[in-house]
Amino acid sequence: MHFHYGFFFSHCFVAMTPLEMNNQTDVTEFIFLGFSNHPKLQGLFFLVFLLIYLTTLLGNMLIITATRISPALHTPMYYFLSNLSFLDICYTSTTIPVMLVNFFREKKTISYEGCLSQIFFLVTCAGTEGVLLAAMAYDRYVAICHPLQYPVLMRVKVCIFLVAGSWLCGLVNSVTHTVLAATLTLCQCDHFLCDIPLLLKLSCSDTSLNESVLHVASATIGLSPCLFTGVSYILIISSILRIPSAQGRSKAFSTCASHLTVVVVFYGTANFNYDRTNIGYNLDTDILVSVLFCVITPMLNPIIYSLRNKEVKGALRKLSR
Fold it and tell me: Which is the CATH superfamily of the domain at 39-320?
């Protein structure tokens, strides 16, 4: 039997098999219909998302290469940036390749286990990026507010610890949610996104534990890094405003402008993606919001850094020669 659902970047059918002795059902696979309400634009959508994916890969790989080969970029800030670029490659590769393949497949399926795997990698990348952006904010805070102590406070071991800690936070958070999600019994629902909040909506079993863990994770992995980043920039801006010369203020602000822009884009799209549960769902709206958060943001990060950062632009120019 088949039921209609919405899915990440798609509308879909879900093939289900009944459980014995009750009215519940087990999800066995998801059959994607892609952009089902725009069947004549499948080729155009394929080209657009292929271009976005290639741009994301190229931009982030150039950032990683530039930070590796340019001695001027062998600093903590660019060490964090290269890790952010690697994270964005992983992030976008979790969703776009499957979507590109499914644009022209007659039977577009993914197993229930495959859906849980996609949730695992998406949540890992999203959680890691939030904490990593907070670590980058700390780096800018130390550089501007405590410049004399910067070599000590941001030595190599500290940078490695901050990056490893970011990945650990993302992994622990993702494993917890994925394991709890795997215990749920799923029932019929009008829409389904391959993400934790909407998986809970799809469940007909008790989700109180899952919801409690989700609230705790939202506070620790989501809100806390955001607040930490906000406080860091309040202190940074306060310190910059105390610099007597306009040239000095401009130079100090330019060192954190790119990161601040990335932070605003990431948390802005993340809040828009997850804080719309009471609005109701529309397929086109779901697609747009998901694309903004999981596709456009990883593409914008290297563009923002390359356009607003003189050192990165200089290193990229050397690569092109």
Answer: Rhodopsin 7-helix transmembrane proteins (1.20.1070.10)
| Tokens 């507010």, located at residue | 145
Q: Which residue has the tokens 């800030």?
A: 77
pLDDT of 61-94, one tens digit each?
Answer: 989 998 888 888 889 989 999 999 999 999 889 8
Closest CA to 123 of 216, 195, 225: 195
Q: Are 29 and 109 in contact (CB under 8 A)?
A: yes
Residue 14 confidence (pLDDT)? 40
Q: How far apart are the first and last CA of the chain?
A: 59
DSSP code per residue over 205-249: S--HHHHHHHHHHIIIIIIHHHHHHHHHHHHHHHHHHT-SSHHHH
pTM tops 0.70: yes
Reported as a single tens digit per residue, the pLDDT across 174-199 is: 898 888 877 766 654 443 346 666 66
- The size of the chain, in residues, is 321
Kind and range of the H or E element at 110?
A: strand 108-111
Q: CA quadruple 200, 205, 208, 212: dihedral positive or negative?
A: negative
The domain limits of the chain are 39-320
How far is Cα 226 from Cα 271, in angstroms, rounded to an integer? Answer: 11
Cβ atoms of 305 and 255 within 8 Å: the answer is: no
